Amino acid sequence: MASNKSLLLLPGDGIGPEVMGEVYRVIDWFDRRRAVGFDVKEGLVGGASYDKYGTPVADEIVDQAMQSDAVLFGAVGGPKWDNLDFSVKPERGLLRLRKDMDLFANLRPAIVFDGLIDTSSLKPELVRGLDIMILRELTGGIYFGEPRGVEEISEGERRGINTEVYTTSEVERVGRVAFELAKKRKGFVHSVEKANVMESGQMWREDMQALRDREFPEIPIHHMYADNAAMQLVRQPKQFDVLVTTNLFGDILSDIAAMLTGSLGMLPSASLGAADATGRRLALYEPVHGSAPDIAGQGKANPIAMLLSFAMALRYSFDLSEDANLIEAGVAKTLDAGLRTDDIMQNGMAGVSTRGMGDALLQELDKLAA
Ligand code: NAD
Fold first, then answer.
1. Nearest CA residue ID for atom 1, ligand 1
2. What count of other Cβ atoms lies within 10 Å of the Cβ of residue 114?
């Protein structure tokens, strides 16, 4: 059906096109069964784009991404392109999109489905029902701060430098996303830094507290040092709701949180830009996993991370929480029915292909929507 909800699909390389194939089928299902239609465009990115255009992302695709309500990104990279110059490596395509779209807020939910509770590295009682959101600042901090580099200071002696830099507006814009997310969830925020040893961390803490007091007085905020947060995530992960932190600490803490949930094939993510006057944000949704060249083209990829990324797009770009819930409930039921791709296989369960997992989800969606 006609619609003004625009989606740009960038399947990429390796298993990207395979997992994106299942998203197409779910988009079609929403169109038919829920009368939720999208204007869907598709483009090349990564190695696939390099092969055709000599660049990992063409200007035209970047323009389309900026015009779209949401971008769904598969994965890029693979051995075929490993020896390319750094400037045209497939991964540069993703980095350029993130940079040009100014996607400063990276959302990584860590959710444990009952059916997969045994794949977590923690005891079942610690992770049963786990649903937390790690929010990482993505465009500032030590990965971008100046000065940076390696300099020779004397014969045989070098100095390597990276600089942690944040401004108040950078802290506040990611803070606002955290408080807004908390409002729609359990309703509290942990802000994580190292205020005890870093001046920039002290400022982060003060600015987060001031923002909360000024704009979100109803949302409790807890401040925590990053080393303690790492420990608490594996000790008692359910104490968190939204955990907001810097680029560097978020890189590490989001991977810890990911492993609480089991497999890479299950993990979605969203990267959001600033809201304009109408509340619209540029947004890119992608699975956490890469292009998995070892299993590409074999129908073995788990499409759930990609499908859950689409569910995040429904929730955060289109305000269609009910429809996002449908996909998440469908995934839970598919897992409860004992269907597993190789990466999440357990004793006594039934093996399915990428397509088989998609089929099962569509059947569950039919039942849920009946
Ligand atoms: P990877 O995530 O592609 O794979 C790691 C392991 O997990 C592999 O054994 C793979 O088979 C498995 N795996 C990953 N996703 C899976 C899924 N959906 N279903 C089943 N199994 C899955 O990471 P890697 O092997 O380190 O990197 C491979 C390529 O992907 C490299 O070129 C790397 O640069 C690229 N990469 C891209 C992204 C991205 O596009 N965002 C992210 C990470 C890595």
1. 290
2. 11
